[in-house]
Design goal:
Order of helices and strands: EEEHHEHEHEEEHHHHHEHEH
Number of helices: 11
Shape: globular
Structural class: alpha/beta
Oligomer: single chain
Radius of gyration: 20 Å
Strand order of the largest sheet: 3-2-1-4-5
């Protein structure tokens, strides 16, 4: 089965062609991130307009790259939620039009389920059930993947998502947008043990929920207090300590969930899965516990349409 997939939930416009759910024939992406850098974050109206400008051309590009025709398409898949409503509307409208014109089924796909499915593209042998940690700019979930289309939420953030906290702390440190990758770079030169950013909720493995708002606030308060006293702080040390606190929390709770529920596979998904410190932390913890660790190729960590097709 050849599926044409569309993803437009945020600032990446993406169109992909995937055969039988696992073989990626084309995965074309156009990002408007350079426009949003001017404002320090995603501007929904700009994102929506940029989707409109490129989505048709991306579809043509994907067809050409895959070496197939419109008549070869068996179904159209599209992200329907969650996301910026105007941006999502562009992709859904385009996908509906294509499916109607070709006379093929239209398949709505939940964005978070798409991120989970990115692991199937990297590990063709991976099958449910398993535990998946989804960490992105808008979501932080520990999910029990019971089957390809059956899921159970075990734990989630009670406030800021992991990626959201990364971006907010990066902004406080004066780093450019997008802040997450910039903070990761800065953390490489810092001391991750310098500042003990933590919370009681995050220290408990048995509690599946977590919170990152308090850690973010602790960083901001540390910087404000130092500024008032005229003290100099190492931004690299702050970045490294913050990143360690987030990675330790996610690792502790995800690995515990896998053990508690009797799973021997733990997968990682979402934009924050591109963070090398988190990947290393989870890989080491899983190795120590005899758990298989899976994480998507870097190209499938951020928003893409191949995962939606899968």
């Amino acid at each position: 089965m050849l599926i044409l997939a569309v993803e437009s939930s945020c600032d990446e416009t993406a169109v992909a062609l995937v055969r039988d759910g696992r073989t990626v024939l084309a995965d074309c992406i156009a990002s408007s991130v350079e426009m949003h850098k001017l404002y320090g974050g995603v501007v929904p109206e700009i994102a929506s307009r940029k989707h409109i400008e490129v989505i048709s051309q991306l579809a043509d590009q994907a067809l050409a790259q895959a070496g197939v025709t419109r008549g070869d398409i068996d179904a159209v898949a599209v992200t329907y939620a969650p996301g910026l409503i105007g941006a999502v509307l562009v992709g859904v409208s385009f996908a509906k039009a294509v499916a109607y014109a070709l006379g093929v089924p239209l398949i709505p796909v939940h964005h978070v389920r798409g991120h989970i499915a990115a692991n199937y593209l990297t590990y063709p042998d991976l099958e449910p059930p398993f535990i998946c940690l989804v960490a992105s700019g808008g979501h932080s979930h520990i999910i029990e993947v019971l089957d390809y289309d059956r899921f159970r939420l075990l734990g989630h953030t009670r406030d800021d998502a992991a990626g959201e906290a990364f971006d907010k702390v990066a902004r406080a440190l004066g780093l450019p947008y997008p802040g997450g990758p910039e903070l990761e770079k800065l953390a490489l030169t810092g001391d991750p043990m310098k500042y003990p950013f933590h919370s009681a909720l995050n220290s408990s493995a048995e509690e599946a929920d977590f919170s990152f708002s308090g850690i973010k606030t602790a960083v901001v308060n540390l910087m404000h207090n130092a500024a008032q006293k005229g003290e100099a702080l190492s931004k690299a040390d702050i970045a490294a300590s913050f990143q360690r606190a987030v990675c330790d929390t996610l690792t502790l709770k995800a690995v515990h969930a896998a053990k508690e529920h009797g799973f021997n596979t733990l997968a990682l998904a979402g934009g924050v899965s591109a963070n090398r410190a988190l990947r290393s932390s989870l890989a080491l913890a899983c190795e120590e516990q005899g758990i298989r660790f899976c994480c998507p190729d870097f190209r499938y960590c951020t928003d893409n349409a191949a995962m939606i097709a899968c």
